[in-house]
Amino acid sequence: MIAVTGAAGFIGSCMVRSLNDAGYTDLVVVDEFSRPDKMRNLDGKSFREQIHRDNFLRWLERHHADVEAVLHLGARTDTTEMDTAIFDRLNLEYSKSLWMLCAGFRIPLFYASSAATYGLGEQGYADDHATIPLLKPLNPYGQSKQDFDVWALEQQHNAQTPPAWAGFKFFNVYGPGERHKGRMASVVLQAFDQIVRPSFIGIRLSTMKEYERAVKKWERYTENPKITVHYNRNVKEVLGSDGVSGLLLEDTTGGPDETLAVTGMFLAIGHEPNSKPFVGKLDMDEAGYIKIGRPGSTYTSVHGVFVCGDVADKVYRQAVTAAGTGCMAAIDAERWLAEQ
Ligand SMILES: Cc1cc2nc3c(=O)[nH]c(=O)nc-3n(C[C@H](O)[C@H](O)[C@H](O)COP(=O)(O)OP(=O)(O)OC[C@H]3O[C@@H](n4cnc5c(N)ncnc54)[C@H](O)[C@@H]3O)c2cc1C
């Protein structure tokens, strides 16, 4: 059996898929499993058991004899998080405990370090052990990975190492399974979204098929000679005192602002159901619309919670239908209260 930590994350879920492709399905997947958008990464993957990260170390103590290797990819990876206590607990101390168990039970351990440990690259990018303590990461996340690398190397002197071990530093990783990372997603995905997913196309992209469809749709616009696409621009200001005479455009790649002479502007806002506060609390479909529990009603997956309007409607999205389901929700709620 192989244990994969961080299995619902981007790299972890790709690792599970690769192991499945190679014929390994005797896997335990370890994560915290609370976010539906991350859980989608495990759809279609085969594994034996799902274990919460808080229970994994105790689980390993009991089942170590069955575990052939631990692939430790779980970590807090937010490079903008400044709370070092979070990294100490989730990255450094957790990894140390896991290491000690693997060393004691003779289980090979392979873990994700990070390319963030190289900092500005002052020491180059070679991984000889003498250079590693000299690296200067630029953020607390990178520092937590660096601290563990240094600590792991020190364990060699105490002869307290797993029978085989290695830390991997990933560079420029991108691909399926990273959408849940938001602003921490790869530059490739963010650039793709900026170019191919302007709000007026109004689609969510979560699979390669959707990517391909979006690209085709986009090509229809770019091939039209009457349309010029201005990539990587934000509208900073609408110019003109008596109607629109132009737009002041900001270059998001850092170039100078520029003015575009136009006499009109249309703003498309797209359709994103504003359901984020209820993620993990109410059942939703993959686009984030709250699911109706009972057909023809406003019941949700949670007893006593009712839903109405655009947040549950991806078909009509009109004021009159929103108002109608609003009345239904009020009646459902009133009857539900009377029944209690
Ligand atoms: C540009 C545009 C044009 C439209 N034109 C038409 C039209 O011509 N005819 C038509 O019938 N329909 C039209 N619609 C659609 C119509 O506006 C919507 O279907 C309708 O407003 C949906 O009502 P709602 O109550 O579900 O959502 P909303 O009207 O969006 O109301 C949701 C409310 O919840 C609030 N809210 C969000 N998050 C939270 C939170 N966490 N806590 C508390 N409150 C929160 C929001 O601030 C908002 O006030 C248009 C929509 C747009 C955007």
The structural class is alpha/beta
The strands making up the biggest β-sheet line up spatially as: 3-2-1-4-5-6
Question: How is the quaternary structure best described?
Answer: single chain
What is the level 1 CATH name of the largest domain?
Answer: Alpha Beta
> CATH-wise, what's the superfamily of the largest domain?
NAD(P)-binding Rossmann-like Domain
Instruction: Tell me the series of helices and strands, N- to C-terminal.
Output: EHEHEHEHEHEHHEEEH
What is the global morphology? globular
Query: What is the name of the CATH topology of the largest domain?
Result: Rossmann fold
Low-confidence stretches: 198-206
Radius of gyration: 25 Å
Helix content: 25-40%
Number of helices: 8
Q: Count the strands?
A: 9
Mean of pLDDT? 88
Describe this structure in words.
The protein is α/β, with parallel strands linked by helices and 340 residues long. The protein folds into three domains: 2-168, NAD(P)-binding Rossmann-like Domain (Rossmann fold, 3-Layer(aba) Sandwich); 197-260, FAD/NAD(P)-binding domain (3-Layer(bba) Sandwich), CATH 3.50.50.60; 276-339, 3-Layer(bba) Sandwich (FAD/NAD(P)-binding domain). It contains eight helices and nine strands. The chain has helices at 10-21, 36-39, 53-63, 84-105, 140-157, 187-196, 208-222, 319-339, and strands spanning 2-5, 27-31, 49-52, 69-72, 109-112, 165-168, 233-239, 246-251, 258-260. The strands form two sheets. A six-stranded parallel beta sheet has the order 3-2-1-4-5-6, sandwiched between helices. Strands 7-8-9 form a three-stranded antiparallel beta sheet, with no helix packed on it. α4 packs parallel to α5. The structure holds flavin-adenine dinucleotide. Flavin-adenine dinucleotide binds at residues 269, 274, 277, 309-311, 317-320, 322.
